[in-house]
Amino acid sequence: MAAIAESAGVSKALLHYHFADRQTLLSHVVLRLGERTTHRERRALDRERLAPIDALWHWCSDELERGELRALIQLGLLDEPVLSSAAANVQSQRLASAHRTIGELFVRLSLSPRLATALIAATHLTFIDGLAVNRVDLEEARRRFDVFWLANLTLGD
How far apart are the C-alpha atoms of 97 and 93, rounded to whole Å? Predict the structure, then answer.
């Protein structure tokens, strides 16, 4: 907590006033990163000038460059009960957001998925998380993204 307070330029007492311990602080970080990530993802398809898949790619590449998604995933892997609970909450929110986004994507493409949208959304989320954790460079990430979505679009009628 002392190192965090020093990095933030605040007193350790102030940090302890707001957060009882390291776990509580990190769980708030997880929740905040999750909120920010899902908020940006919900707006992914708002780029009207782009085709839906390209708009989704821009969101994905922005997330990969930002690094918050990677931090979120790594914090969720820490074996601490308060963090695990926060990470589970965030994962549930991210899945719900991905479900909405993928459903809207298929609608905008005038396709009906032959698999449950929830299943495609879960696969999409796992794919994006894999790109973030493995630190794939953006050019390679784009190739993988295109192949992934080409395969997914074959699931539509």
Answer: 6
Q: Evaluate whether 155 touches 116 at the Cβ level (below 8 Å).
A: no
Which tens digits make up the pLDDT trace of 60-93? 999 999 999 999 999 999 888 888 999 999 999 9
Q: How far is the CA of 121 from the CAs of 18, 28, 76, 90, 97, in angstroms?
A: 36, 25, 20, 15, 9
Q: In DSSP terms, which residues pair with 156 in a beta bridge?
A: 113
pLDDT digits (tens, 9 = 90+) for 22-66: 888 889 999 999 999 999 999 999 877 889 999 999 999 999 999
- Residue 113 has phi, psi (to 5 degrees) of -65, 140
What are the structural domain ranges in the chain?
21-153
Other Cβ atoms within 10 Å of 51 Cβ, number: 11
d(CA 37, CA 121): 15
Q: What local confidence, expressed as pLDDT, does residue 23 receive? A: 87
Q: How far is CA 93 from CA 21, 34, 36, in A?
A: 25, 8, 11
CATH superfamily of the 21-153 domain: Tetracycline Repressor, domain 2 (1.10.357.10)
